[in-house]
Predict the structure.
Amino acid sequence: MKKSFVPLAVVTALLFVIAPILIARAPYESEMLLIQKIFYFHVPSWVAMYCGLLVCAVGSIWYLFKGNRVADRYAESAAELVLLFGLNGLVSGPLWARKAWGVWWQWDAKLTSALLLWLIFVAYLLVRKYGGPGSEKLAAAVGIFGAAVSPFVYVSVNIWRTIHPKTSVVPDIVKNPAKGFAAPLLVSMLAFVLLFVLLLMVRVYLAAHQDALDELYLAHED
Amino acid sequence: MKPRHLAIAIWSIILMAAPLFAFQPPPPGQSEFVPIRELPPSEQLPAAPLLVIAYAFFLALMIFYVWTVWRRLNRVEREIHTLEQRTTRSSR
């Protein structure tokens, strides 16, 4: 594994120690009070998921057009992390919604499209696992499709009528650090992105080992 | 107008009027948005358990994922080791 892994892991661990302290000290939002604190890792979860989407899309394009195995390893690993961070977003969202909106789930444009995007990546991993020989290319196409859909999921709150807050919430918080919401959010975001990078490194390491094993099996059969 | 037609007309009016009599005005306060702070305590949801569940779920999910990767990595390394040993033995 890369030499940068251990220092990165230390920094990430530190950020995950600092983040809860900052979140606990952050002021209550005037309408939602305590439950709003889910925001500090609900939003970073989606940020990490979008990082995964980007890596998966770039890796898939690279693999489809250049046939690079390393790029495919990155795409597969990133797709698994899209599922992981997406699941956290999909679970933390309803927990927040139950208190703020009075319902666990609402079939509106934002929530439904986010669920569908997550399901596209479930399909990606199912294709890779059960698709048989050559499924990597089909999965790469699914990954590119998922990444192409993702901007629509992000802006859906601005296009359609939905009870989910608009995309302007996060930029507004970052632009007004005096309110006290920006620091915990930015630290959490950084922690989640670094955690994503760490998990990606570990998962790519595993994928490289799996490829080595496949090659050994082929050599053994010959 | 024949008596039969008159009877049909009267019955139609009675049937159409029934929903109007059945309609009850909503109790005061239900037709408007009630701020969450003004809800009676019996209808308020505590926020702390939801927040704790959300954080605990994230922690459990990450631990579970790292465990699955560690397990898969161990299995692959074991298989690589076995195959390498078999290859060395067969080449002797």
